[in-house]
Amino acid sequence: MVGRLVTLAGGLAGIIFAFFVPRLGGIIKANFEIMSFFEPIIFVVVAAALFWRPANTWGAAAVIVSGVAFNTIAKFGYGMSPADRTIYQFPICIAVMVVASFMGNVLAPIKADARERIDRLLSRMRGAGFGATSTSGWIGLIIAIVSLLVFVGCAFAESMLPKPYNLFIFMGLMMSFVLGCYMMVPMFVAEERQALPKGQGAPIEQSWIHRVIGNGWSWLVLYIAALVMVVILYFF
């Protein structure tokens, strides 16, 4: 339920944000602005939650507050560019996550049952997935990493990209990054799926929302529709 509500709120925020894109200098500049504010924060919080055992809600909350505060001061106080804000924000968020998480573990230790659940999750993420021989998963990992690195490189050299094809370049890189992440899924959930009775999917797969929009064909139609709309808006 939390995931669905957050997704709904994020979608509504994205729709509202779209109306202000012209005031921010176009979709590319607007995208950089919003990414510089939130992507380092999200990346550090999610990565720490999945791969660093001491991470906790204290660290996550501190990263969100400090990251937004840094961006606000850097942008409106010093006029720092989105690329520079992103570069500086990563080490700041990592340092805040480490310090705040250790403080949280001292002041409010996690209960034993909660720690056991966290350890099971981390064990599955670290062990079962990457230990499995999944060729498509490793290919997906490579695609995701390459797409992300090229995206960052294009972000720094955005002024050199041909217009308006720069938009299609960034869209293609984002789509290939998502594709790589999708191919990586079996590397992380293989153990959980093997524990289920034969023929039975995960609980989320039994919900109506998954049957309606949670499949590859729905997303393929969505991407094609978005691509057609972009072509029409840009060239006609």
What class would the helix/strand composition place it in? mainly alpha
Model regions low in confidence, pLDDT < 50 over at least 5 residues = none
Average of pLDDT: 78
Largest sheet: none
Assess the beta-strand content as a share of residues.
under 5%
Q: Count the strands?
A: 0
Distance between the termini: 41 Å
Write down the domain tally: 2
Overall form: globular
Round the Cα radius of gyration to an integer and report it.
Answer: 20 Å
- Helices and strands, in order, run as HHHHHHHHH
Approximately how much helix is present in the residues?
A: over 70%
Helix count, DSSP H or I runs of 4 or more residues: 9
Provide a descriptive summary of the structure in words:
This protein has 2 domains: 23-110, no CATH class; 129-191 and 210-236, no CATH class. 80% of the residues lie in helices and 0% in strands. It contains 9 helices and no strands.
Give a brief description.
The chain has 236 residues and is mainly α.
What are its keywords?
236 residues; mainly alpha; 2 domains
List the helices and strands and how they pair.
Layout: H1 2-18, H2 27-51, H3 57-78, H4 82-107, H5 112-131, H6 135-156, H7 165-194, H8 208-213, H9 216-235
Helix pairs in contact: 2-3, 2-4, 3-4, 5-7, 6-7
